[in-house]
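Milestone M4 deliverable, item 7.
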Amino acid sequence: MPPTNGAVVLLSSHDLGLSRQFTDSVWLLDGRGGLSVGTAEQLIADGHVGRAFDTDAVRFSRAPSRFEFVQ
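Output delivered:
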């Protein structure tokens, strides 16, 4: 539950599940100098999470909302 007294908590994490569960707003750094801001759900739906984390070996799948190995 978010604080009602105007408090701000800054969390740095690579855990997408934790970010989805406990944050109101996410700042996603893409590793190339870019920054995307929104809810975790917005960043997933808009493809920002995939663009930030996808590699030749791992892809982020929006539908089940998880990382998958590329075969």
